[in-house]
Specification:
five-stranded mixed beta sheet; 19 strands; 599 residues; GIY-YIG endonuclease; Nucleotidyltransferase, domain 5
Length: 599
């Protein structure tokens, strides 16, 4: 990858957490890093002057980069850790201690216990985590023990032992850290209800714990015990930043491959994630160019075989978004849980890679974007051809006066201001939007037919069913109805109305198609209002001066600005009038008022 191309890729990086990998000329990974903000972190390598010679040398060797988006900074830290262990890049710190992150363990027994561990075992226990910060994990455990006291002893609390009275409550009961299930002081049903609340907190539903901490903090502050309140505030901040579930490390998933796909008419982008021993150890997104209008299923099947061969994957389970038919593999289409989260993370990376690549192609060849957007509009608006030429109309009037209509023109998805037109309505009296729309369309397209101009592929009317019906009548009278698509857009919910269809179409609010139509509608409104104000201003600026033959509005304005009133203009000398209007017009004004006085 050339340096210029590398800089272009850096500019397109997202402002999201993730992990980045640097490759040298031999296509070897030389560095893996994490980032809270990928764009800012990676950019800093190429914009700052590095004091360390080693860092400067590494940057000079970078030929290309890859990145993986994750959900949080914690996930970025965990993924960085697992990738460094897998690839051991030259410029990374050597992780010789093989650090493992802590989990919270919920044992599988009667009256289960909860405690931290770094060594999960397969004994039926539930594990939550991992936690990148042990301090955060202990904050969670402290909150849980305050909210829902659970036992921490190793007694065998079988029903027979409790009924036989083999145990006595300990100090933990007396100081309020346990409710005494060993003596039957707490029922198993009550204990398990508390445990269910604990599970909710560990899965991320921490609202109750947050409210509890806020209450304690406010109570301490009200008693002026600010140091204790500050401790609660510190725990509250950590709890609000807490993430219980990591997408990139999981104790419930071991050796699987994850594939997702994002495709359009010409290209497909497939993301691959390899999970081993519960950790993501490989990620990559590849691009496929369609040749024969292949389906998503065909493209994904091809990519699965190719990527598994490339990375010598022996995983028997493959997570995918839809059914794939390949012998010898077990495919899973997850609906919820950790596998679903992994698939969503893979899909997120595929979609971003697609967006990045298409934007790159469109910068190099703007016609590619035009074609894509026009085809998208054709699909979204149910047209028979791409709308390279669109015209939009909007009416303006004030209490039925000075009715005007604006026509804005978009070509290839962009405003063509030289083609804008405005119409002063001639045949309509009073505020009648429907009749105004009919007259304007009749005049516009009747004239275009007479002059042999090419008609648009789409006409957009600002308004609902009424304006659309009037527009349809005009097109029928001209003889072009059915040859040109026509729709109305209602403001309230941005509904798109079609002729002879009572049900509106709702387009995705984020789609480029709706954005272009909204832009046209807003531009037509702006253009129409501007013209309407100008016309109204001209029609309302009428004084005795404008009745003088040879004296127009501008001369009248100049006189009034200088003399302030008609009375002073009447009494002004010829020399004073000449200083404002010049000799010719000054004589006209003086002669007019002299004749008026004589009359």
């Amino acid at each position: 990858m050339a340096k210029d191309e590398l800089k272009s890729v850096i500019k397109q990086l997202p402002d999201l957490p993730g992990v980045y990998k640097y490759y040298n000329a031999e296509d070897e990974i030389i560095y893996i890093g994490k980032a809270k903000n990928l764009k800012k972190r990676v950019s800093s390598y190429f914009t700052k002057k590095h004091d360390s010679r080693k860092t400067a040398l590494m940057v000079s060797k970078i030929q290309r980069l890859e990145f993986t988006i994750v959900e949080s900074e914690v996930d970025a830290l965990l993924l960085e850790n697992s990738l460094i262990k897998e690839f051991q890049p030259r410029y990374n710190i050597n992780l010789k201690d093989d650090k493992t992150y802590p989990f919270i363990r919920l044992t599988k027994e009667r009256f289960p216990k909860i405690f931290p561990t770094r060594q999960p075992v397969k004994d039926g226990s539930e594990y939550f985590g991992p936690y990148a910060s042990g301090r955060m994990m202990h904050t969670i455990l402290d909150m849980i023990r305050q909210l829902y006291p659970l036992r921490n002893c190793n007694l065998n609390l079988s029903d027979a032992n409790i009924k036989a009275g083999k145990f006595k409550v300990c100090l933990e009961y007396h100081i309020g850290n346990c409710k005494g299930p060993c003596e039957g002081l707490q029922s198993e049903a009550d204990y398990m209800e508390s445990l269910e609340q604990v599970r909710r907190i560990l899965k991320g539903n921490i609202g109750e714990a947050v409210q509890h901490l806020k209450h304690l903090m406010q109570a301490e502050a009200a008693e002026l015990r600010y140091e204790q309140a500050a401790l609660y505030k510190q725990k509250l901040d950590m709890l609000e930043n807490y993430q219980s579930k990591s997408t990139v490390v999981s104790q419930t998933i071991h050796d699987v491959d994850v594939f997702s796909i994002a495709a359009d008419e010409r290209y497909a982008f497939v993301n691959f994630m390899k999970v081993a021993n519960g950790m993501i150890i490989q990620t990559q997104t590849v691009e496929l160019k369609k040749q024969l209008d292949e389906s998503k299923e065909e493209l994904l099947a091809y990519a699965i075989v190719e990527m598994r061969n490339r990375y010598n994957s022996t995983s028997t389970e493959v997570i995918v978004p839809f059914d794939i038919d390949i012998d010898g593999l077990r495919f899973t289409i997850p609906k919820l849980g950790d596998k679903k989260k992994l698939l969503e993370l893979s899909t997120k990376n595929a979609l971003f890679y697609k967006k990045e690549k298409l934007e790159q192609y469109e910068r190099l060849n703007p016609d590619v974007k035009v074609e894509r957007v026009m085809n998208q509009m054709m699909q979204d608006l149910r047209l028979t051809e791409p709308p390279y030429h669109i015209e939009c109309f909007d009416n303006s009037n004030l209490q039925g006066t000075n009715a005007v209509s604006a026509c804005v023109v978009f070509r290839n998805g962009k405003a063509s201001k030289k083609d804008y037109r405005h119409f002063n309505v001639n045949t309509v009296e009073g505020p009648n939007d429907f009749a105004t729309m009919k007259e304007v369309l009749h005049r516009r397209y009747g004239r275009m037919l007479q002059e042999g101009e090419s008609l648009p592929q789409l006409i957009v009317l600002d308004g609902g069913k009424g304006q659309l019906s009037s527009g349809v009548e005009a097109l029928k009278e001209i003889g072009i109805y059915g040859k040109v698509a026509i729709v109305g857009i209602a403001k309230r919910l941005e509904e798109i109305y079609y002729p002879e269809d009572p049900m509106p179409l709702y387009i995705d609010k984020k789609s480029e198609s709706l954005k272009i139509i909204q832009q046209m509608r807003d531009e037509a409104h702006r253009f129409g209002i501007t013209h309407h104000r100008n016309r109204r201003s001209k029609n309302t600026f009428k004084t005795e001066l404008t009745e003088i033959k040879g004296i127009g509005e501008e001369s009248s304005r100049q006189l009034l600005a200088h003399f302030k009133s008609i009375k002073k203009i009447k009494s002004a000398s010829l020399a004073e009038l000449e200083s404002v209007l010049g000799k010719a017009k000054a004589k006209i004004v003086q002669a007019y008022f002299q004749q008026a006085d004589q009359a």
